[in-house]
Amino acid sequence: MEALGGSVIASPSSADADRLERPFPEIVDELRGPGAHQPDGHLGRRLRGPGLCRLLPRAERRAADGRGAGPRGVRQVVGRLDGCPTPPTTSTGTPWSSPPSSRTSPPPALNIGAWCDLYIGQTLRTYTTARRQAGSVQAREGQRLIIGPWDHMSASGVYPGRSVGPLASAQMLGLTGLHVKFFDRWLRGDTTALDSVAPVKVFVMVIDLRRDEQEWPLPDTQWTDFHLTSAGHANTVGGDGALTTEPPTGTGHDTYLYDPRRPVPTAGGASMPTTFGFCGPVDQRTVASREDVLCFAGPVLEEAVEVTGPVSLTLYVSSSALDTDFTAKLVDVFPDGKAINLCDGILRARYRDGLATEELMEPGTVYEITVDMTATSNVFLPGHRIRVDISSSNFPRYDRNTNTGGVIARESEEQMIPAVNHIHHGPDHPSRLVLPVIDRKDQR
Question: Which domains does the chain carry?
Answer without folding.
Answer: 9-87 (no CATH), 97-216 (3.40.50.1820), 222-443 (2.60.120.260)
